[in-house]
Structures are given as C-alpha cells and as structure tokens.
Amino acid sequence: MLEQIEGSQAVAKAVTLCRPEVIAAYPISPQTHIVESLSDRVRTGELAGCEYMMVESEFGAMSACIGASAAGARTYTATSSQGLLFMAEALFNASGLGLPIVMTVANRAIGAPINIWNDHSDSMAMRDSGWIQLFAESNQEAVDLHIQAYRLAEALSVPVMVCMDGFVLTHAFERVDLPEQAQVDAFLPGFVPQQALDPDDPVTIGAMVGPEAFAEVKYLMHAKQMSALDEIPVIARDFAETFGRDSGGLVRPYRTDDAETIVVSLGSVLGTIEDVVDKMRDEGRTVGVLGIGCFRPWPLDEVRAALAGARRVVVVEKAFAVGAGGIVGQNVRDALRGLPVEVYDVVAGLGGRPITRASLRQVFDQVLAGEVDPRRMHFLDLDVDLVQRELERSRRGGRPGPHAENMLRDIGTVASGAYE
Amino acid sequence: MAHQEIKLYQTGTFVAGNRLLDPEQRSVQARMGRSNSLTSGHRACQGCGEALGARYVLDAAMRATDGKMVAVNSTGCLEVFSTPYPESSWQLPWLHSLFGNGPAVAAGVAAALKAKGRDDIRVVGQAGDGGTVDIGFGTLSGMFERNDDVLFVCYDNEGYMNTGVQRSGATPPAARTANTKPVGDEPGNVFGQGKFVPAIAMAHEIPYVATATVAELRDLEYKVEKAMTFRGARYIHVFVPCPLGWGAASSDTIRLSRLAKETGVFPVFEAEHGEVTEVSTIRRRVPVEEYLTLQKRYAHLFGPAGRPDIVARLQATADRNIARYGLLAPDEEPAGPGVAQDVAGEGAV
Ligand SMILES: Cc1ncc(C[n+]2csc(CCOP(=O)(O)OP(=O)(O)O)c2C)c(N)n1
Ligand code: SF4
Ligand SMILES: [Mg+2]
Fold first, then answer.
1. How far is CA B289 from CA A138, B133, B311, B337, B344, in A?
2. Same domain, yes or no: B26 and B40
3. Ligand 2 mutation target, pool B161, B171, B297, most atoms within 8 A of CB
C-alpha cells in the first residue's frame, strides 16, 4: 500500500511485518524514531508476541539480542554512530556465534567532535565485524532490505546490518509502498534456528577454541559470508517476484554501458549522483554510476565486471580511513587489480555536510580534466583556508587549544566571535 | 538458619552426615539423581571453590526446575576451565558470550523464552566477581532494574583469576594480587570504599538477594531453590576461595569459606525486596588472623615485618559487618576478639 510516510516509521512497519520476537534497543539520534515506533507497536499489540527490552546501553542491546537469538527467537535492534561503537565487542561475538540478528544502522558521524549528522563512519568502522552490510538508497529500499535481511540472515545464520542514511532517509517523508502482511509471510518463513538453547537437546554455545581449530571456525565464517554473494541475488529475484519491484542485490549499474568514467557510491547520495550523471550524459560525456548495495561481503567479481570497461572510476564515499585513504576506494582498487583503470577517492558529506550537484559536477569535471591526483584522497568542498589558518595557529607554538573550538570560533559559529 | 525440618548429625566439624538421613532429606549433591550440570573432567585447579560452587548452584537449580533450565556464563575461570574445545563439562544448555555482558545475554534468553511462551524454562546467569561487580556491572544493574526473570550468581573469588590474579572491585584491602604487590607504605590492595554488590542488588529492591559460601552446602542449595520460587531478578553472591590466587592449600577451600563467615569477613544473609530477612549467625566467633594466616596473599601482614595495624583494620571491618548484619547469635558474647573499639573509628570509614 502506497503511503506518504517518514523513513523511520516505514522501517518500523517493515520490521513489524517481519514479526520479530525480541527487540532490544537503546535510543540514539537519528535511530530514535524507529525504536520509538516499534515500542508503540509492541504496546498496542500491533506487533504481537514480541518482547521489547528497554536495555541500559547498546552493549546491553546487542548482548540481549545475542541471548535471545541463541534461544531461537527472531531478534531486532537498531542504532547509530556512538551506539554502534559501544556494541563493537558484541558485534564480533554475534557474528562469531553465527546468530542471525538483524539491525538497522541509521548512519551518523562518529565523534570527536561529537556530531549527530549523517555520514558512513559508523558502519565503515564495523565493516570487518563479520556482519553483512546492506546499504539502502531510498526509504523504499530500506523497507525492502529489512524484509530481505531476515531471509538472508536466517538462511545463512549470519547477522545482517541494514544501513540507511541518518536524517537524510530516517527523517524524510517519502512515498513508500508498504507490503501486506500476507506477502511478507509468504516471502519470509518462520525462523528455524540452526542452533538453539534447548533443555531437551542441551548444547554448549560459545566454547573456547584454541589454535587447533580457531582458523577453521573463522574460515567457515568467511565462507558463509562469501556464500551470501550467491544468496543475495536469489533473494532479490524472489523479492521482485513476490512484491513486484526491484530492490536489493549486490551492485546496481546505472548508464554504465560504454561509460569511460564510472562513479561508485553507496546510500542515498546515489540519487544526486545519478542526476549529475544524467546531465553530463546530455552533454555527451560517457559517464555512469555503480551503486554498491552490499558492501560486506564485498562483491569483488561483480564490481570488477561492472567497472572493467571504464578508464577511470571516481569513488564518492562518506567515510575514510584516517591516515590511509578511502575505504570503499581501497576495495574498488582491489577489485580492479591488474586492470588499467585509475581510481579516484573522493570523501564527501562528512558530519552531514550537504553533497550538492554543483560540487559533484565540479569534482567530476576536474577528474576528467586530469586535475585530480589519483594517488591522493580528495575532500569534497574542504575549506582549505580554514584548515590553513588553524595549522598556522598551531605552528605558533604555545597552547593553541582544541582544534574544533578554534575553527568554530574562526568561522564565527561560536558566539564569542572571531579568533584573534 | 534452619530451613528444613530435619536433624543434622554433626561429625567433628560442622558437616552434616548425609548417610544418616532419610534419602528424601539428603542434599541435592548427595542424591543419586543429581544432574551433574558441571561434570568431571574439567580443568579447574584442585580445590577450586568456583568449580564447587557452580556445581552446587546449578545442580540445585536443575532440581528446582526439573531440568528445564538454560545457563549463561560470562568469561572467566569457570568458562575457560569448563569448555576447552571440543570438550565441554556442561550437561545443560549453556551459552558464553563475553566478559561484561552475562546479565544482558541472560535477560535476552529470558525474553526469548517468554516471547515463545516457554517461560517454564528458567534462566541462570553466572560470572566471577570481575564479570559481576566490575565490567558486567552496568548490564547487571539494568537486568535488576527491569526485573528480568533471571537468577544471576556471582562466584566471588575476590580477583581476576583467569588473567593471572589481578585485583577486582571485590578484592579485599591489603590482599596481595599480581597488580597489588606488598610494596610501598600500603602493602597489598588499598583500603578503598569497598563494593559489596549484594547490598547494591538490595538497593534495586529485587525480589531476592542472598549470600552464601561453599562451606555450607545445604544453605546454598536452599537459597538456590528458594530463588527459583520467585519470578523476576534474583541475585546470589557465593564466596568461593581460589587456592591458586590466594596462596592457600587446596584442602583449605571449605575451611576458608567457613572462616570467612565465622570471622564476620563475609556476612551470610538473605533479603527480599530490599529488606534483610534472614542472617546466618556466627557459631564460633574467631579473630580474622585465623582466616588470614591460611593465605599467602596476606603473608606480608604477619611475621617480624608484619603489619598488626593493618590486621586490626581488617578486624574492624569484620566487626563492622557483625554489627551491621547482626551476625552474632543472641547468646554469643558481643565483645568478640576485642579490637573493634580501638580502631573502629579508622577501620569503619
Ligand atoms: C572486555 C574484556 N576485558 C578483559 C578481558 C580479560 N579477562 C578475561 S577473564 C578476566 C577476569 C575474570 O575475573 P572474574 O570475573 O572474577 O572471574 P574468575 O576468573 O576470577 O573466576 C579478564 C580480565 C576480557 N576477556 N574481555
Ligand atoms: S585459578 Fe582459582 S578460580 Fe581459577 S580454576 Fe584455579 S582455583 Fe579455580
Ligand atoms: Mg574472580
């Protein structure tokens, strides 16, 4: 049913349709509207047979999900940013134990400096936690991915993170086609756990494993994730058959045929990039876009196949590895190993900075004109002068004080006025 | 603290002779049908109080729940010595996740069982003192506050034994550990403010809180069985000597447990909804020296270069427990070993 609805409400509705039995969550912006809505739905009985746990922290939330999932219940949680990091230890534990928990990450920057706005630093920091990571481009896709995530998680017994841009998606009102309960029930069978705490069949879960078998247990984790690369397209196809629309999948090429330049990105910014590319196509530039729907496991073959014909690839991503470079960029380079394709890392939208069509167009033009060094990370719309002034203050010695506060004062955001 | 209307036959010490009892009156441990939840073959040190405590607790809980039970374990000696891959000593469904999340994991299991309409299956969480009073404290307090249907048991051996005997928030003052060596002016662990989690559990006003030692099997079994008659959050704090970490003889585990109680070092009581309901009184009061001198972790307090002043402070702490919890039977001499008055002002802070 088509509805004009806030992203968070739509996701809460989708999760409700998946009939989770235990939800444990701790509030953090911009995830709050999702879990508030789920709490309402459990209280009113719309989501029946579900225990909603008001835990004391995100660490407690993920830990409760671990216990609930090991006891054979379909479980759900959601978080963002600092909350995801607060779960870190339990994330690795959930994946190590092979528990099919589904979690929404309403993507948000990580402090310091503390910042509630959108980027992908949180999910990217946890990219190697053993969770499958799916990125939603729109609220419609966010809804659809949750339903697919449960199918995937339970088929493979691995946890799945559905990543959606905080505020940009979670707080946006859009037209969303919300599935019917009967459709979801047909697509998503009841949870049959691959392991469960059962007094009639007692098992030990979470035993200590030494060097004699640790690598093998880890290998199996990897093998299972890799098998998701086969499973995800099948589930997406099934989904299209049941619900009548395309959603999910590993990668999504847009006008990449004959494209000499392909922009790679993920999440909600893809729409903006496609607009820019359309314009450039109109002007006769052979440009295309490759959206990454699944970042973990990394669809290396699909990315390679999609980009192999290009001369240059521009990766636009909302996070970076401090002291190293682009994260998605590194993975793209890995996929293109041995091919004569130049990869450019563009970091954009950090801490909620708007990614405008004009800025994207400018950097694409610069790349095409050979003005961007592919061996260096490029920060979109970086206020170079501001950085220079702060560096200058630091060079003067003494005690220049905290950078963040200095820079805010410099640009006049802090009431006390300009620095110096 | 008589809980069963039976006569106990004393043999020399305070041990009750089970063989003289009617089979129905025997302890869970003495029954043929005990579940042996933590079965033999594990790798605990000889005389490990924690291994003993866990078996007592889980067997009693298994009996109380007719075997319908799940155990959740935090990281620590108990988890490590019981599950070296691919062997497991656990004869019940058992889950280990992390060091600091046992209470939350157990609460999650309980929530799942409730959602599935299987709350006939009960949940016991267990951890060492580190996993309970330090790193797991936030999740424990959350579990208490929500009144989740979990019995959480702390096996208190007063230190991080699994990582090589470092101090925890439950390590007593003056005790030597790997990172509180007897060097400097205040040898051993410092005299902090203490962190007696049974009292903190009571402050949550949860249905049931109890302390116990491995010396008194029947008392411990009784408390576990009683805890299982309640729904909601319950907490039992069991005093479990660690021969390796304390520098004590393996054969002294029970003796040390008994002395901890008889000196007043460890108060044994029960509480319901935040109020103390029963106290195990001291049968034969003894000075703390009798307890301390059996353990090398206190060796620096004795001998020619000893620290009688510190021993006196420890005695004062024990005396304070005795006064606070009313640990003396009405007919017992109130004066005790006679150091309380001298140092109370200092030791009681
Ligand atoms: C997050 C984390 N920090 C530290 C450790 C290392 N560690 C494992 S067990 C343990 C101490 C356990 O102490 P306690 O809970 O008292 O149990 P015991 O071994 O004494 O029975 C420590 C520090 C860990 N496993 N995880
Ligand atoms: S170190 Fe202590 S707690 Fe650990 S197994 Fe040995 S005796 Fe038990
Ligand atoms: Mg300990």
1. 71, 27, 7, 10, 17
2. no
3. B161
Binning pLDDT at 50, 70 and 90, where does residue B330 land? Answer: confident
Interface of B with A (CB under 8 A): 67-70, 72-73, 79-80, 83-86, 88, 90-98, 100-101, 104-116, 121, 138-139, 141-142, 145-146, 148
Task: Please check whether the two domains, A2-243 and A251-379, share a CATH topology.
Answer: yes
Least confident of A88-92, A306-310, B326-330: B326-330
pTM: 0.95
Top mutation candidate among B73, B160, B166 for ligand 1, by most atoms within 8 Å of CB: B160
Residue A116 and residue A83 in contact, taking contact as beta carbons nearer than 8 Å: no
Please identify, in words, the CATH class of the domain defined by A251-379.
alpha beta
Of all ligands present, the nearest one to the C-alpha of B131 is 1
- 8 Å CB contact of A71 and B138: no
CA distance A79 to A26: 7
Q: Residue B14's domain spans which residues?
A: 1-33
Q: What is the per-residue pLDDT across A349-364, written as a single tens digit (0 to 9) for each? A: 999 999 999 999 999 9
Domain residue spans of chain A: 2-243, 251-379
- B217 lies in the same domain as B152: yes
Whether residue B211 sits in one domain with residue B123: yes
The residues facing A54 across adjacent strands are A25
> Is the confidence at residue B339, as pLDDT, over 50?
no
Mean pLDDT computed over every residue of chain A: 96
Over range A150-179, report the average pLDDT.
98
Q: Of ligand 1's atoms, which has the minimum distance to the CA of residue B156?
A: 16
Question: Could you tell me if B122 and B200 lie in one domain?
Answer: yes
Q: What is the DSSP string of A286-300?
A: -EEEEEESEEES--H
Architecture of the domain made up of A2-243 = 3-Layer(aba) Sandwich (3.40)
Residues B177, B159 contacting (CB under 8 angstroms)? yes
Contact B122, B93 (CB under 8 A): no
The average pLDDT across A400-405 equals 92
The pLDDT value recorded for residue A138 is 98
Quick one: closest CA in A to B65, which residue?
Answer: A199
Mean pLDDT within B95-113: 98
Shortest CA gap B104–chain A (Å):
5
Torsional class of A62: left (φ above 0), alpha (ψ -120 to 50), beta (otherwise): alpha
- A198 in contact with B, Cβ within 8 Å: yes
Residue B2 and residue B74 share a domain: no
Percent of chain B scoring above 90 in pLDDT = 83
Mean local confidence (pLDDT), B128-143: 98
How many domains are contained in chain B? 2
